Amino acid sequence: MLSTLQPPRSLTLLPFRRFHGSKTIASLASSSPTLDASSVSPPQSQILTTRRSLLSGETTASEIAKSYLSRIRLTEPQLKCFLHVSENVLKEAQEIDQRISRGEGVGPLAGVVIGVKDNICTEGMPSTAASRILEHYRPPFDATAVKKIKEMGGIVVGKTNMDEFGMGSTTEASAFQVTANPWDLTRVPGGSSGGSAAAVAANQCMVSLGSDTGGSVRQPASFCGVVGLKPTYGRVSRFGLMAYASSLDVIGCFGSTVADAGMLLHAVSGYDRFDSTSSKQDVPEFESQSLSMDSFESKPLKGVRVGLIRETLEEGVDSGVRSATQEAASHLEALGCLVTEVSLPSFSLGLPAYYVIASSESSSNLSRYDGVRYGNQVMADELNKLYECSRGQGFGGEVKMRILMGTYALSAGYYDAYYKRAQQVRTLIRKDFKAALDHNDILISPAAPSAAYKIGEKKDDPLAMYAGDIMTVNVNLAGLPAIVLPCGLVEGGPSGLPVGLQMIGAAFDEETLLKVGHIFEQTLKGSGFVPPTLPNVA
Amino acid sequence: MSTTLFRTIQPNHFTLLTNALLRTRRTSRHISVRCQTSTTTQQSSSQQQQPRTSAPKNHGSNKLDEILKDYEAVIGIETHVQLSTSTKAFCSCPNSYGSHPNTSICPVCMGLPGALPVLSSKVVDFGVRLGLALNCSLSLKSKFDRKQYFYPDLPKGYQISQFDVPIASGGYVDVDIPLEFGGGHRRFGITRVHMEEDAGKLLHSDAGDYSQAMIVSKLDLVDLNRAGVPLLEIVSEPDIRSGVEAAEYGSEMQRIVRYLGVSNGNMQEGSLRCDVNISIRPIGQAEFGTKVEIKNLNAFSAMSRAIDYEITRQALLYNQGQADQIVTETRLWDEGAQKTVTMRKKEGLADYRYFPEPDLPEVIFTQEYVDSIRASLPELPEAKRRRYEAMGLGIQDVLFLANDVSVAEYFDEVIGKGADVKSAANWLMSDIAAYLKNEELSISDVKLTPQELAELIAAIKDETISGKIGKQILFELLAKGGTVQGMIKEKDLVQASSCYFPQNCITDPVEIEKMIMKVISESPKQLEQYRSGKTKLQGFFTGQVMKMSKGKANPALLNKILLEKLNAKD
């Protein structure tokens, strides 16, 4: 049954195709990329494989669903990726099987098992943004992205854990549970979409939706060794995404391959009349980018101009990350890219500007959680007490801190010094990116300054945690698309820790990112980033 | 200071609520906010028993006038106009007044997680219309901002409004002060017009009085039907100086929005709400005094009285050397007690932490769009008044006719059919107005068409029928409809109306005189009686002549000549 589920991201726990031992890490760093398939075959799209095997009758959606459910049952006690697992998975799978057996058409995502971040509304299924204040809350409608997934036959398997309302970089700020990194259970999966990233890494679902306000898709993708795609602002409707910072939020996609992330993006993209910030730009068929390796020319990326952002390799970045990024650059060069260093002078201004803007918007966006109409309420003798107690007990520490920061930044007398200034920085960053992308097709950088760190390591040092967002926040401020894909391993954990490469594209040019990303992924020696065995599960 | 008391709000009430509402809109549901009975010391209900007074007592009116003449009031008005769009501003919920509580709501106007606002283009349309009508300059590029505060009737914790770039600004409005209030023409500056959304309503289950913003009830309910309904807020310059001027300003706003069709302007339903900002200063002083806000003004007359009360209150405090007791605060007009009472004192400036609404793109439109709307604007009250005035109508007629857009349109149609202007005005202002008042109808309800009123006026003017007959016909036409001509035939009003068909009419005085002489000569007895004082017999002669002429003699001419002959001393 499981063998029907190509690609070979084995569902069995043992024997597990490990990436390489620590010895290989060094060899990866020093080896020049080659177009030959290494001993490990390149990862294959799970969506395409599912489609093929369903339509050929090789397997059924029910079988696939069952295998994922049992995988979840086995691994959840260690990983804790999900806040809720749907009771309807098998029912939905059976409906797909019935359609197929009746010879009726099925959608392009038929049978695809999809995890959805808990801040994305799913009708009738708990959607809490991992916050106590929304505990047990079940929205009366699907987010537009979820609606589209369902219309295309996708099966929402459950709601993934996250930092409360997306505020955090470790998923430790969930009100309910801490998710472990499948590569090392003592480490964080990153965040805030840590549950979605870890679930894909651990093969609890094929693909998943996350959200990215300052790197919340890309950084956990890097930490968990999966592909994370942050689309252009406005590419995917935000309707049904619980707002953190409205001008930065985007729904993003996780997959074990670039092709999967691209196909999921294609499914959820497009103008939505319920979100006036969604774009009317055409959505290209990203699937056509996922050519098979056989069709690659010797220099498949010939002429693609790649700018390596100088400021992202300066101090504060782990040496392992730095060398993996440089290796990735060499690999791109070997594929025919023209790699040069570019400078973004405003780069270091992004982080403080981001935290001012995101906190300001969140202080406003979270005002609706007042305990009056829905969510958890605390009895009180008077109105202000009702607000204080409901919010005081409903929100976690990180959320309260950001609400306070944002309220402060928007207060009379401080607005100009903080919010307005941050907006000016934002304009500057946009301009710098624009200039860099006028001369380059894509820009590359590490996805994070380090690989996954230990659970609890930065819990009491928010500034250190915030600093980890330095690679990603600028992209949100500029509204650009970016993809993170695994490019190497560094030492740590039982068998190394993945490191992600970030590729940044021009607005609405996800196509180039997916093309370059796909070829990069398919040709990277030793690709196939599969986390090691989960202890005590086998 | 305001200590609204809330206790429990039932958890998870909402899920049931929305789910139910998405499927059925039949049952009325509330979002409940349960409160404890207030234990605060504000007395309020007792105030309702107080006799009506228009000014603080213990001051003879002469003395009061003496004091008042040293002060000048500075008044600015914020008017909220609820727009008569079919949907709410940012969602497709129907915008309907008086529905069952919480039946016109959806995830967007309830502020559910993940819901986003989408602006209805109609709101912009109406904003531009009103902006143009108020002689404002339009911002071709404006934006929305969030005004943030917590209150149970504000689902998102912020109101979507416009802060620093309103859709329209820098206009003015012209009004005529009615003669009974001194008359004259005034122009008031309009600072700005901006678009925003309304909040919901708190309903108080007990008949609690909340004149002090005390919610003295056991259970408070939130009705979100009104949440998200589009508003235009009009802010005036502080150009207004008296209650009368303020009332006239308010009435003009009401007329304008009704003329434009952007709102029903109904104050009782809250479709038009005026908040007054008022301060006074000694005449000659340049600086403004401390500003007080007055709310809860449900009629223009109340607004006028509230302002006059407030001017007096403040003037007396000044006069008694207690100007420091005039503090920045919001006062409510207590209609029962005819006075303003403190609602809440403002400690420092409220900080609404405005910032640009990131969920909505900028509002951008072209000059062509503005021009096309300008071209579609109806004639506005001020233009109508000046036109009526130029037609020779007195100011009272002018104000009456232009006051109600449907009356003005009716009048315009009547005179468009060629009716005499003054007669048309008179009919509308006297008999028709009285009829409407008696029957509690509006002009649009009557069966009499403008065409027929014009016919009626013409028939009286050319003496086809008398004014008296005209009135009789009028009331029938008002109630039943029909034509003047048909009515004359049907009622056999021929006696006085043979000349209705001019071609049959005998208007030659010589011919009429001949007939008269014949009748007189044939009736010596009656003539003698007449001349001896029985003048009632004039009718006999008239009848005889009419009979002889087969009803065709022009009655006016007939009577004129007849009188000459009868009274002639031959």
Instruction: Based on Cα principal axes, name the global outline of chain B.
Output: elongated
Please report which band the strand proportion of chain B falls in: under 5%, 5-15%, 15-25%, 25-35%, 35-45% or over 45%.
Answer: 15-25%
- Count of helical regions of chain A: 16
Helix content of chain B: 25-40%
Subunit structure (chain B): Subunit of the heterotrimeric GatCAB amidotransferase (AdT) complex, composed of A, B and C subunits.
Enzyme class (chain B): ligase
Function (chain B): Allows the formation of correctly charged Gln-tRNA(Gln) through the transamidation of misacylated Glu-tRNA(Gln) in chloroplasts and mitochondria. The reaction takes place in the presence of glutamine and ATP through an activated gamma-phospho-Glu-tRNA(Gln).
Pfam family, one (chain B): GatB_Yqey
In short:
With 538 residues, chain A is α/β, with parallel strands linked by helices. Helix content of chain A is 36%, strand content 12%.
Describe the structure.
Chain A: Keywords: ATP-binding, Chloroplast, Ligase, Mitochondrion, Nucleotide-binding, Plastid, Protein biosynthesis. Chain A: Its main location: mitochondrion. The complex is a heterodimer of chains A (538) and B (570). Chain A is α/β, with parallel strands linked by helices and 538 residues long. Chain A is 36% helix and 12% strand. Chain A has helices at 22-30, 46-55, 61-79, 89-101, 144-151, 194-201, 218-224, 258-268, 319-334, 350-365, 383-394, 397-410, 416-439, 462-467, 473-478, 510-523; strands at 82-85, 113-117, 155-160, 207-212, 227-230, 250-255, 305-309, 338-342, 442-446, 482-490, 497-505. Chain A is globular, with a radius of gyration of 22 Å. In chain B, a hairpin with an 8-residue loop joins strand 7 and strand 8 (185-197). Chain B is 37% helix and 18% strand. In chain B, the strands form 4 sheets. Chain B has a 9-stranded mixed β-sheet with strand order 3-7-8-11-2-12-13-14-15. In chain B, strands 1-10-9 form a 3-stranded antiparallel β-sheet. Chain B has a 3-stranded antiparallel β-sheet with strand order 6-5-16, with no helix packed on it. Chains A and B meet through helix 10 and helix 11 of A and helix 1 of B.
